[in-house]
Amino acid sequence: MAIAVVVLARSRNLFAVVVLMGIYSFLMATVLVALDAVDVAMTEASVGAGISTVLLLGALHLCKSEEAKPLRKPWLPLAVSASIVGMLVFGALGLPAFSDPTAPMHTHVVPRYLNDAMRETGVPNVVTAVLASYRGYDTLGETTVVFTAGIGVIALLRRRRNTKQETAK
Amino acid sequence: MSIGTHFSYAVTVFLMVAGLFIVIARGNLIKKLVGLAIFQTSVYLLYIVPGKLIGGTAPILDDRFKLYSNPLPHVLILTAIVVGVATLALGLALAVRIREAYDTIEEDDILARDVDDCGADRQGK
User: Fold this and answer.
1) CA–CA dist A92, A87 (Å, integer)
2) What pLDDT, on a 0 to 100 scale, did the predictor assign at position A68?
3) Residue A93 is assigned to a structural domain of this protein
4) Interface test with A, best of B1, B24, B34, B98 (most A CBs within 10 A)
5) Where would a tag sit more exposed on chain B, N or C end, judged by fewer CB atoms within 10 A?
6) Is residue A163 in a domain?
7) pTM of the model
8) Average of per-residue pLDDT across B67-72
9) For chain A, how many structural domains are there in total?
C-alpha cells in the first residue's frame, strides 16, 4: 500500500494515478477485512474502488490526462509534512497500544450495544443496528449531505451545458 | 510502549502525511483530489485500527463467539466513506467547471491567468 502511494505521488500520468488509486482502495478494503470491519470493507470496495474510480475517469475524460511538470522543487511542502510527522508521532505515542481491551473506546458505550442490541433492535449485525437504530438521525444527516452534493454537481454541470448551447447559437 | 504495539499508528501517520504532501505539493487539481482521498483513507485506519481486538470477530452477534471488535468506529467510518465520495464528486465537478472557464486544471496556470486578467482590468480603467 505504501508503494502504491509513493508511486502515485511521483507519477505524472493522471490515468496511471487513477488506476493506482483503485488498487490502493482494494488493498485498503483487504486491510479492513483483516481488522474485522467487514461492513466498512464492503463499502470501501464498492464506493472507494468502484464509484470513485468511475468519477475520476469521467473527470479525466473531460480534462487533460497529463500533469504539468512542477516548476519548483517541493521543499516547503516537504518541510511542512516532516514537521507534521513529528507532531503526529508524538501524539500517537500517547495513544493506547494496539488491541488493548482496557482502552477507553472499548469500555464506554460499546458493551451496552453488544449486550443489548439483539434484545432492543432484533438485528444480529451490531453495525447495522447502531447505524439504522441508535444513530438513525446521523444517517439521515448523511443522506442530506449526499443529496446536497448531488444537487451541487448537477447545478455545476448543467450550467456548463447551457453555456455550450449559447456559444453554439 | 514499543514499536510493535504502535506500528499501526505509524502506517496511519505515513498515509496521512503522504496524502497531505500530494495536496500541498502538486498543482494539478485532480491530483490534489486523489491526495485528499488518500488522507481520508488514513483517517479510516485511524478509527478502525484501535477498534480491533486480537481474537475477536466481526461484530455480528452469534452464540458461538464471545469477543467482538468494536462496532462503533465501523458505523462512523461507513458514514465518512459515503460523505467522502460525495465531496469527491463535488470537487471533480468544480475541476471540470474550472477547466471550462480557464482551459487548464494546473494551479500555477490558473493563478497566472488571474494575474493577467487583473492587469488587463487595470489598464482598461
Assistant:
1) 9
2) 66
3) no
4) B34
5) C
6) no
7) 0.81
8) 79
9) 1
A-B Cβ pairs (cutoff 8 Å, strict): 255
Domains and CATH numbers, chain B: 3-124 (1.10.287.3510)
Q: List the single residue in A98, A130, A152 with the smallest CB-CB distance to B5.
A: A98
Using pLDDT thresholds of 50, 70 and 90, give the confidence band for residue A26. Answer: confident
Q: Of A97, A48, A126, whose CA–CA distance to B42 is shortest?
A: A48
Confidence of residue A8 (pLDDT cuts 50, 70, 90): low
Tell me the HSE value of B60 on the side-chain side, using a 13 A CA sphere: 6
Whether residue A6 lies inside any domain: the answer is: yes
Cβ-nearest to A97 among B6, B38, B61: B6
Domain that holds residue A20: 1-66
Tens-place pLDDT, residues A92-148? 777 777 767 777 777 777 777 777 777 777 777 777 777 777 778 888 888 898 899
Give B56's contacts in chain A (Cβ within 8 Å). Answer: 36
